[in-house]
């Protein structure tokens, strides 16, 4: 099973032929700019398409702290996304409280563990909407 840097490498090398379909769901690659380093960081994330946007969850497995990629996009919401062989820039926005329930439901249908992750932490796990810029 692909994970972490190996997942990113194989996804990039094969334009998602390896890595897009993962553990019964689908993943995209999200590249953010480090808020302190200015370096680019790429993370494989479970996603769902929602209209013209893509939805991801900043769960970090229910860790008490937000994932680094989420902290990075809150500092600079312009991100790069790869879905299979499609690469594009996007604006990352945290779902508003009135949007979140429907989007959370969309994501838990494909990865039910998100509900368990939320019970493990006091933080409100963010749902992120990626709006393509091109």
Structural commentary:
Strand 6 and strand 7 form a beta hairpin. By secondary structure, the protein is of the alpha+beta class. Strands 1, 2, 3, 4, 5, 6, 7 and 8 form an eight-stranded antiparallel β-sheet that branches. It has a single domain (4-132), classed as Electron Transport, Fmn-binding Protein, Chain A (Pnp Oxidase, Chain A), CATH 2.30.110. It has helices spanning 4-13, 68-75, 100-110, 113-119; strands at residues 21-22, 25-33, 40-46, 48-50, 53-57, 78-83, 86-94, 127-132. It has four helices and eight strands. The radius of gyration is 14 Å and the shape is globular. It catalyses: oxidized coenzyme F420-(gamma-L-Glu)(n) + a quinol + H(+) = reduced coenzyme F420-(gamma-L-Glu)(n) + a quinone. This is Nitroreductase family deazaflavin-dependent oxidoreductase. Belongs to the F420H(2)-dependent quinone reductase family. It comes from Nonomuraea mangrovi. Pfam families: F420H2_quin_red.
Notable features of this structure?
single chain; 134 residues; alpha+beta; Pnp Oxidase, Chain A; eight-stranded antiparallel sheet; 8 strands; F420H2_quin_Rdtase; Nitroreductase family deazaflavin-dependent oxidoreductase; Split_barrel_FMN-bd
């Amino acid at each position: 099973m692909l994970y972490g840097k190996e997942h990113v490498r194989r996804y990039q090398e094969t334009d998602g032929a390896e890595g897009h379909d993962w553990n019964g769901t689908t993943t995209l690659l999200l590249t953010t700019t480090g808020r302190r380093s200015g370096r680019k960081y790429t993370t494989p994330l479970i996603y769902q398409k929602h209209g013209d946007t893509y939805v991801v969850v900043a769960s970090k497995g229910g860790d008490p702290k937000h994932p680094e990629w989420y902290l990075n996009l809150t500092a600079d919401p312009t991100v790069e996304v790869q879905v299979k062989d499609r690469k594009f820039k996007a604006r990352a926005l945290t779902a508003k409280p009135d949007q979140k329930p429907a989007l959370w439901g969309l994501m838990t249908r494909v990865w039910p563990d998100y509900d368990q992750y939320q019970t493990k932490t006091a933080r409100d796990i963010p749902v992120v909407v990626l709006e393509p810029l091109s």
